Amino acid sequence: MTVNKNTKLLDLLGNTPMAALQRINPNPAVTIYAKLEGTNPGGSVKDRAAYSMIKGALDRGELKPGMQLIEATSGNTGIALALMASLFGLSIELVLPQDATRERVLSMEAFGAKVTLAPTMEGAIDYANEQVAKGGYLMLNQFANPDNYGAHYRTTGPEIWRDTEGHITHFVSAMGTTGTIMGVSRYLKEQNPGVQIVGCQPMDGSRIPGIRKWPEAYLPKIFERERVDRIMEVSEADAVQTTRRLAREEGIFCGMSAGGAVAAALRLAGELKEGVIVCIIPDRGDRYLSSDLFAG
C-alpha cells in the first residue's frame, strides 16, 4: 500500500463504495446497490452537507469572526458539523431532541461541540431560532440551505452515475432534511430524465430515526415535491427487521433509516421486471448500540 503524505482528512470525503445486496434481494432480475455512506470520515452521509454548508458560509462572509454556529439536528448532521467545525476552528452548539442516542451526543462532544437537548425535533428548531434572534449565532439551517442539496448534486449524484455506468433506473433514499434526495434527483434527472426518484417516509404512528413525515409548518424549505417521483411509506417494524437483516445476512451494519430505505427498495424490486436500484445507507450501526435496534 502506498501512502500519499499529502492526503488530508477532507480528501477522504465522498467516493463511498457501493455493494450489491446478495441475499435479501427478492428479485434476481433487479440489482440493488447499497451506497455505504458510513465510510465517510465522520461516519455518515451528512459529512458532505456539513462541509458544503460551512465552506459556503465562510466563502460568502456570512460566518464572521466571533460568531458561533448553532444547528438543530436529529443526530448525524450534528456529528458531521462538529467534525467540520473542529477542522475549521469554529465553535458550535448543537441542539438535539432528548431521545437522541448517547453515542451521538458523546460523538459531538468528542469533537468539541456544546450539546443542548430539547423535548422534540420541532422544539430543537425553535430553540435554535431563539438563540439566533439574540445575536452572535449563525444557523446554517440545513432545512433551507441550498448548500445542503448542492453537496449531493456535486458529489453523490455523479458518483452514483459513474459507478453504475449510467445504468441506474431507480434511486431510493430516506427523507429527513431531504438534502440527499433533492441533490441526487437534480443530477440524475439531468443525465437521464427516466431515472425514478423514490423517497421513503414513516407510516403514520411509526417512528424511524432519520426519516420524517414533517408537519406542514416544519417542512424543509429545500424540499421540492416535483423532484420525487414516488413516496413509499415504511412501518417501524419493517425498518427494524430490515436493519437487522442487513447486518445478519448482508454484513451491512447500519442505522434504522437505512433499514427503512432498503425495506422500500426491496418492495420496489418485487414490482419490477428488471432494473438497477441504488439505495443510500446513511450511517453505521454503532451509533445505535445503546438502543434496542439490534436486540431482537
UniProtKB/TrEMBL annotation:
EC number: 2.5.1.47
Residues annotated as binding pyridoxal 5'-phosphate: 76, 176-180, 257
Signal peptide: none
Gene Ontology molecular functions: cysteine synthase activity
Residues recorded as bearing N6-(pyridoxal phosphate)lysine in the entry: 46
Reaction equation(s) it catalyzes: O-acetyl-L-serine + hydrogen sulfide = L-cysteine + acetate
Pathway per the UniProt entry: Amino-acid biosynthesis; L-cysteine biosynthesis; L-cysteine from L-serine: step 2/2
An annotated GO BP: cysteine biosynthetic process from serine
Family of the protein in this entry: Belongs to the cysteine synthase/cystathionine beta-synthase family.
PANTHER family per record: CYSTATHIONINE BETA-SYNTHASE
Protein name per the record: Cysteine synthase
The species this protein was found in: Chitinophaga parva
Source taxonomy: Bacteria, Pseudomonadati, Bacteroidota, Chitinophagia, Chitinophagales
